[in-house]
Amino acid sequence: MIEKLREIVGEKGLIVDRGEMAPFLTDWRNRRTGDALCVVLPSSTEEVAAVMKLAAAEEQPVFPSGGNTGLCYGAVPETDKLAKLGIVLGLQRMNRIREIDRAANLMTVDAGVVLANIHTAAAEIGRQFPLYLGSEGSAQIGGLISTNAGGTGVVKYGPTRDLVAGLEMVLADGTVLRDLAALAKDNTGYLLRHLFIGAEGTLGIITGAALHLHPEMPNRAHAWVSVASPQSAVELLAAFQDRAGPYIEAFELVSASQFELVVKHCERIRIPFEGGIPPWSLMIELSSVDSSTDLNGILEGLLGSGLENGGILDAVVANSEQQAQDIWHVRHSVSEANKKEGVGVVHDVAVRTSDVPAFIAAADEAAAANYPNAFTEVVCHLGDGNVHYILMFSHEFWASLLDKEAYALEVEAAIHDVGARFHGTFSAEHGVGRKLTQELARLCDPVRYGLMQQVKTLFDPDNRMNPGVLLTPAGTTPPRHN
What we know:
By secondary structure, this protein is of the alpha+beta class. It is 36% helix and 21% strand.
């Protein structure tokens, strides 16, 4: 099979050396490692289709790989078929921007294009692709679509699903399904591309995408606000929605415990408050396409009212682009700080925004009662109710655990149960991957779960596409891993 793959993709498109394969076999936090026969890097949709046909003929599993920036091990190759290790299929050589249509606000790209390059290309024509993540320098658009990534702009633009206008997909048998017309109106039946958005590579390989672009926002205002509690933050959000709803670009709530780690571990961190790190921080960004809109005036008026009524303890409005960058640098340094501090069990719960304060309080109670040796942190996309509730354990404690995955799942289940009390979801933007398949089976509505299994069987009857990710086939258990 190796020689047949080499004939399809050439020497540049095939990796068989174990050392060179290593980055494709382990998640970026080095917590889980799998194995594969080889890594295949096609350079075109036609090559992907040929590789998929060969894999089907050889009955080999296929593990799609993007920028490997996920948190749920969805890109780690694992199978329970020892004689069929499978192939990792990456699209990093498919990095072409195929077309930009400024009038239609569309950009069509290969699935291997890195998010930062999409941002650059959009800016060159006075547009933006409003998906903003800390990993934009390495995350590929195909992987972001496959996981329906979120980010700080969801409150205004929606998740990745809302930014996708069309897809090109290669199915498990090598058939190419093209849906790149990107028409604003097309009422001709099932919108099949939506099945692939968030499917985590379990239905096929996304090879191309048509993306919705939005106007650049030349007018922006930024603030870092100190509030006493999550409830105060929710009340402030409501006030902003009343006065500045269309302008809200980001509304991020972060606990003092989280920013203490950022200050401890990261460089170029500036805390602009005389009293140090606030008990709760709100990072707010407003934006408008109209340069005449006085966003700073709106921002200062709302913050002034909050200071008067006691909802706000202190506030700093950015007076320059550099000050704005400093604010968001602190926010985007969270992952780096947590990786250096210890092992964080990161939850991706979403509840209604109005329930965020009660959820955090209930999660605090559960954490204190069951895991008193953990350091808790909150990073919340408040505008859409997505709460990353983190229990941070020391490296020493984590190293002492005999079954680290079982312990992590126990911690996750405890917090997920809290989210379920508020009718929330345990995965808002990170996905399920291999990490949370048991939780999906446990918490998902049985009717919905059964229908998803039927969809999986329809597109991938032999369960070769990223087996063990998202869904566990009926009557089976997930494979063990290293």
